[in-house]
Amino acid sequence: MKGGGLRIYAILYLIFLYAPIVLLPIFAFNSGTIIAFPLKGFTTDWFVQAAENLTLRRALSNSLIIAVCSSIFATCLGIFAARASTRFEFPGKGPIVGLIMLPLVLPEIIVSMSLLVVLLSVGVELSILTVIMGHTLICIPYATVILTTAFNSLDRSLEEAAYDLGETKWSAFRLVILPLVMPGVISSLLMSFTISLDEFIIAFFLAGKEVTLPTYIYSQLRFPKQIPMIMALGTVLVVLSIVLLTIAEYFRRRGVARTGGKDSGGFL
Domain named ABC transmembrane type-1: which ranges (predicted)? Predict the structure, then answer.
C-alpha cells in the first residue's frame, strides 16, 4: 500500500512537471489560434511565421551571440576555479569556492538588480555586452561544478609522469591534463550555452534597447494572435535544450569513464 502510494505520487508529480512541455508541440501544430481543446487541425504555418519574423530572428541572433560568449567565458573561468580548488591548498579556499557558487543560491532578480545598479553607477551603457557579463556570472558555478568533477577524476600520477619526462607545468596542462578533461569542458560549454539561451531575468534587466529571445517571447504574450507562433518557438527551444543537455551528459559520462573516476550523478 505504501509503495503504491509513492508510485501514484511519482506519476502525478511527473504529469504535473512535464504536461506543459508535452502540450507545447500539440498546440504548435494546431491550426486554431485559440489554445484550447478540441484541436482544429494540423498545420506547420506557425513554424513558418516564426522563421520569417525579422524581429524574432534578430532576437535569436542576439541570444546566440550572448550564449556562445557567455559559455566560453564561464568555461574558461570555471577551468581556473576547478583546477585551483582540486589541485592546490591555499588560505581562504573554502570561502572563495563558496563565493564562486553564490549565484546558485541567490535569487536571479537580486543579482540582476545589483548588476544593474553597479553598471549604471559606473556609467556602463546597457547592451549585449552587459547581458554577456551577467550570464557569465550565473553560468560560472555550473561550469565550475562540472569541471571540478572532471579534475577530481584525473589520476595525478599522469601529471607527475609528465613532469618526470621534462614537461613544464603549462605544457603538462596543455598536453596531458586538458585533453583528459576535454569531455568535461565540452559538457560545461553546452550546459552554460543552454542556461544562457533560456535565461530571462538578467536579460530583461541588462539588455537595454536590445532584444533577446526570452524577452521577445515575453513581449509577445500580450497578443493572443501571436501565442501559436510562440508555442512553435517554444517547441523548437525545448527540443534544442534536450539535445544540448543530452550531449552534455554524454560527454560528462564519457569523461568520467575515460579517467576511470566514479560517476557521482549528472544532469539526466
Answer: 60-248
pLDDT band at 115 (very low <50, low <70, confident <90, very high): very high
- Position 133 in a domain: yes
> Is 58 within the bounds of a domain?
yes
pLDDT in tens, 4-23: 778 888 888 888 888 778 88
Which comes out higher in pLDDT, residue 161 or 110?
A: 110
Sign, CA dihedral 72-74-79-80, equals positive
Average pLDDT of the chain to the nearest whole number = 83
Cβ-contact 166, 188 below 8 angstroms: no
State the Cα–Cα distance between residues 226 and 48, nearest whole angstrom.
Answer: 13
Q: Which CATH number belongs to the domain containing residue 240 in this structure?
A: 1.10.3720.10
Residue 128 or 177, more confident: 128
What confidence tens digit (pLDDT) does each residue in 215-241 have?
A: 888 888 788 788 888 888 888 888 887
Could you report how far apart the first and last alpha carbons of the chain are, in Å? 29
- Is 40 part of any domain? no
Range of the domain at 245: 54-259
Residue 13, burial from CB neighbour count under 10 angstroms (0-12, 13-18, 19+): exposed
Residues in contact with 30: Cβ distance below 8 Å, sequence separation at least 6, in sequence order: 39, 40, 41, 42, 43, 228
* Neighbouring C-beta atoms of residue 80, cutoff 10 Å: 11
**What CA–CA distance (Å, rounded) separates 116 from 111?**
9
